[in-house]
Amino acid sequence: MLSTIIYRSHLSDDVPVKTLEKLANQANCKNQSFDVTGILLFNGTHFLQLLEGPEEAVCAIYDRICADTRHHNLVELMRDFGPTRRFGRVGMELFDLRKYGRDSVLQAVLDKGTSKYQLTYNDRALQFLRTFVEARERENYFEIPSADLWDFIQEGKEEPEAAPLDEGTEDYCFAFQPIIDPFARQIVSYEALIRTVEGGSPDDYFAPLPREDVYKADLRSKASAFALARKLNIQQQSLSINLLPMSLVSEPDAVEFLLQQILANGLVPEQVVVEVTENDDLSRVEEFERAIRKLKAAGISFAIDDFGAGFAGLSLLSRFQPDRVKINRDIISDIHKNGPKQAIVLGIIKSCSSLEIAVIAVGVEKPEEWMWLEAAGISHFQGFLFARPRIKGLPAVAWPEPR
Q1: Domain map of the chain by residue range?
Q2: Element (H, E) at 345
C-alpha cells in the first residue's frame, strides 16, 4: 500500500546550511534503497518533506528522521494513502526555495512531479507544498524550547486529607485535581473526580450499577463532593463537578438538589462549575437545555468537558455557549508534534475567543505539550505534569521554573 507522510521541522542552529546538499544526497541513496521517494523543501530555516512509498518503509525512514538531532520542532502534517507517487524520480531531492522567485518557485516544484494529474488538481499534498512556499502558516510555527530548560518544582506540602464522611458513601470517593495558570502561579479551580473506593475510574464506579440507577447515583454523589470541598476549605476557588448530561434530565429537581447541597455546605453557586461530557448520551436535548438555563439562572457555571471526544461538541457549543471548554486529552497528547491536532486546537481557540469562552487544556503530561499550548494562547491547564488527583485531599502543585 502506497503511504505518504509530510512533516515540517526547524534546522538546528549548529548545522551549517552548506552541508545540506551532502546530507540530501546521502538521504537520497538511503531512501532509494527502501523504495521511498519524495521531495524536501527548505526556506532557510524550516524544512518541509514529503515521503512516499510502501507503508512499512516510509514509517521506518520517518522514525529515523524523528530521531535526527540536526533538526528540531518536528511536526507531522499529513499521513495518508494514495494510488500513485507524486515525486517518484529520486529517493529525495532537496529544493532550496531561496534560489527561486516567489512567482516561479511553485511551478519549479511542480515540474519535479511525476504525477501530473495529482499535482494539477486539489491534492492535499500539493496544498501543503503551496502553503509552505507561500509562507501562509508561519505565524503558527511555534518554536518551543527544549523541555530540559524547565524544572517542575512542587511548592509546599499537600493539604491533609479530609476526615471520612459518615454518610454511607463507602462505595465511592472523590479525588481533587487543580486547574492552574502556570505563569501566574495561580490555582484557578479544583475539579472533584469521582472514584471507586479502590481509586478506580468513573467508568469503574458506574459500570456495575443498573442503568436505571446510574443517573441517580451520579447526581446524589455530588453531595459528598460539596461536603469534602467544605472540609478541605477551598475558600474562594471555584469547584468543578462532573455530571452525565442525562443526570440533569432524568432526575427530578436535579438543579434544585445541587443548589440545596451547595448552600448546605457553605458554598455559593457562583463558585460551582457543572461539567458535562460531550460524548455521553444526550437524547432529550430540549429538557437538557432547560436544565442548563436553570443552572445559569442560579449562578452556576456550565462547561463542556472532553471537547472533541464525541460527536456533539460543535452542536453543544452553538446551542448552549458554555462558560468553559475543556479540550479532550486525546487531542492534547503529543500536540507539539502533530499538525492535525494543532489545527484543531487553534480552531477551537479562535472559535471560543470569538464567543468569550475560556479554554482549558486537560491531560497535560509533557513540558512540550504545555509550551506549545501556552504559545498557542491557552493559559489554564490540568494534568499530571502539574498535579495528580488526590483522593480526599488537595495535591501540591509542581510549578514550572526556568533552569
Answers
A1: 2-140, 148-402
A2: helix 339-354
Location of C-alpha cell 518503509: 57
C-alpha gyration radius of the chain: 26
CA angle 97, 372, 42 (to 5 degrees): 10
Right CATH for 148-402 from 3.40.50.2300, 3.40.50.920, 3.30.470.20, 3.20.20.450: 3.20.20.450
pLDDT < 70 stretches in the chain: 118-121, 157-170, 278-282, 310-313
Q: What is the pLDDT of residue 111?
A: 84
Taking only the tens place, the pLDDT of each residue in 149-182 is 899 999 776 666 655 655 555 689 999 999 999 9
Report pLDDT for 281.
64
Alpha carbon 385 to chain centroid distance? 14
Pairing relation of β-strands 2-11 and 71-81? antiparallel
* Residue recorded with cell 442525562: 246
DSSP percent split of the chain into helix, strand, coil, nearest 5: 40, 25, 35
What are the CA-CA distances from residue 140 to residues 106, 114, 135, 347, 362 (Å)? 21, 31, 10, 12, 21
* Res 323: pLDDT: 94
| Architecture of the domain spanning 2-140 | 2-Layer Sandwich (3.30)
Confidence (pLDDT) at 166 = 55
148-402 matches 2-140 in CATH topology: no
